[in-house]
Amino acid sequence: MKKSVLVIALALGVTGAFAQDLTSKKGEPILPESGDWAISMDATPIFSFVGNAFNGNTGNAAPGVNWLNGNQTIIGKKFIDEKSAYRALVRLAFTNQTYKNMVVDNSIVTAAVFPATDALVQDKLKVRNTTIGLGVGKEWRRGKTRLQGYYGADAMIWIASSSNKFEYANTMSATTGSGTTTLPTTTDFSTPLGGGYASSGVPSRTISSKSGMTFGLGVRGFIGAEYFIFPKIAIGAEYGWGLGFQVQGKGKTSTEKQGGSPNQVATIETETAGNSKFGFDTDLNQGTIFGFRGSNTGTGSLRVTFHF
């Protein structure tokens, strides 16, 4: 009997020695629990900071798996139990930028005499972009130690649009005369210069442009692994494979132009063709398919996840 008790005690001792303690010294659970929420973010800046903190080289490169940083997507989770969770993917982007440039005022007939300079007026370009991406999914987890594997699927939908509006200070006229010209000095906002943009007299110029609305759908399977370095804080990598469909409607461009006989100024509207994409591929190439990704050079994602 004593021998049996000794053998059992020895077996329990060996098992305990090799078992991994899944609580901290303060008794905090290491792994996620039922009801926990989690949020993931790109881990590359963390690796860069840690690497640069230990030497004088500020150019240390982080590991090259980077996805979240490329498309600015937020991923959140809600754990149903210790082994499964719902996922939510969100990207909401709205930008409204204004670019300005000074050009010669064509309405001033008399040239400035040194040391005075020519009178200037201001051109503007207003650029608006909208991107909305939403996704839901579910993941299942495996593993009883700090190292956890997981897999699952996501479904995604995205919408995007953009527009440009130009405001020119110099008026385009059907005739050239005192203070009028058929070739108004106009900013070329596609050619940056030091402190401004190139400008010249032009016979035609874009007044506005608007892309067609982009709409897309996608589904994606994924697999990944995480290691919990601290209680409820994990470093992991994820890769996926899926299919997507995206369609973009027709766009419209308005151009101010002078011509005809007799010469006149008119605004001409033209349509730009739409397009569609469909594909089935890994995350490495889905950037060309999934507008949700926001990049044509997508890769897997190295991420840090916080659970709370």
| Cα shape | elongated
- Uncertain spans: 1-19, 64-70, 287-299
- Element order, helices and strands? HEHHEEEEEEEEEEEEE
- Report mean pLDDT, rounded to a whole number: 82
Order of neighbouring strands in the sheet with most strands: 1-2-3-4-5-9-10-14
The tally of helices reads 3
User: If you compute it from the alpha carbons, what radius of gyration comes out, rounded to the nearest whole angstrom?
Assistant: 30 Å
The level of helicity is 10-25%
SS class: mainly beta
Give the termini distance in whole angstroms: 48 Å
Number of domains: 1
Total strands: 14
Main sheet characteristics: 8 strands, antiparallel, barrel
How much of the sequence lies in strands comes to over 45%
Topology, element by element:
Blueprint: H1 2-18, E1 37-42, H2 44-53, H3 68-71, E2 74-81, E3 84-104, E4 120-142, E5 147-167, E6 185-193, E7 196-201, E8 204-210, E9 214-230, E10 233-248, E11 251-259, E12 264-272, E13 275-282, E14 301-307
Antiparallel strand pairs: 1-2, 1-14, 2-3, 3-4, 4-5, 5-8, 5-9, 6-7, 8-11, 9-10, 10-13, 10-14, 11-12
Fold and architecture overview:
With 308 residues, the protein is mostly beta strands. The protein has one domain. It is 10% helix and 54% strand. The chain is built from three helices and 14 strands. The strands form two sheets. An eight-stranded antiparallel β-barrel has the order 1-2-3-4-5-9-10-14. The chain has a two-stranded antiparallel ribbon with strand order 6-7. The longest helix is centred in the first third of the chain and has 17 residues. It is elongated, with a radius of gyration of 30 Å.
